[in-house]
Write a structure and sequence with these properties.
This protein has one domain. It contains 6 helices and 15 strands.
């Protein structure tokens, strides 16, 4: 199907794309010069959609230089472009830039996130979620309620995007990555910092659609959609 979402991030020459997967493996194999991936059929489709999105972000994407690290992360051998890929359910997302490191994540909103929320959220973030209406179970201490599900999913996605952008091994999501409180909207930006081996501040863009969160980093962050500019606070 056509691109579900496509925008350019000004000042970074970065492109952000989202694709709803409705095609077959055969369709993708006819459109991209990459081999099929092993494993479950759904996972293969996600991988293929991500690779196909690279051509939507950059029609001249050099597939012959594409390599996969020992950790399963794709990269370009000539480093001519920086890119990040994410999959969730029947959706795939890609961000690509010629100038800056980038990171992207896509997460469907699901109650499952509450089972692990205390593992990736710091104490200050947990207190903020409670203040925003996220209830805690008096017996387990875990979060509950739709507000907590929505917010925790966004914070998980934001930290995943940050992890990909930073590229620093051994990051502890709860101890090293901190999200500052913000007013939750359909789309906007989040201020964050990483305290792993220093103190680095940065911003994460986010957008809600179709019961999922899309988050990305391509500093400096200035989002512009044709006909609908979005001003951001610097």
């Amino acid at each position: 199907m056509p691109l579900h979402y496509h925008t350019h991030l000004d000042a970074t020459r970065a492109t952000l794309c989202v694709w709803r997967i409705e095609e077959t493996e055969d369709w993708f194999s006819e459109h991209i010069p990459v081999r099929l991936f092993p494993g479950h059929a759904k996972r293969r489709l996600q991988h293929l959609a991500g690779r196909y999105l690279l051509t939507q972000a950059d029609p001249a994407f050099p597939y012959d230089h594409l390599r996969v690290s020992e950790h399963g992360r794709p990269y370009l051998e000539d480093r001519s472009r920086q890119f990040s890929i994410s999959h969730s359910g029947n959706m795939a997302a890609v961000i690509l830039s010629r100038d800056h490191g980038v990171g992207v994540d896509l997460e469907f909103i699901t109650p499952r996130v509450l089972k692990v929320a205390t593992r990736f959220l710091g104490k200050a973030e947990q207190s903020w979620i409670v203040a925003c209406g996220g209830m805690t179970d008096p017996f387990t201490g875990k979060f509950s309620g739709p507000d907590a599900i929505r917010l925790c999913t966004l914070l998980w996605s934001a930290k995943e995007a940050a992890y990909k952008w930073l590229g620093v091994p051994g990051i502890d999501f709860a101890a090293d990555l901190e999200i500052e409180p913000f007013a939750l909207e359909e789309t906007g930006q989040i201020k964050a910092r990483c305290r792993k081996d220093g103190d680095l501040s940065f911003r994460i863009g986010y957008r809600y659609f179709d019961d999922c969160w899309l988050t990305w980093i391509a500093e400096p962050l200035t989002l512009h959609e044709p006909g609908q500019p979005l001003s951001v606070t610097r």
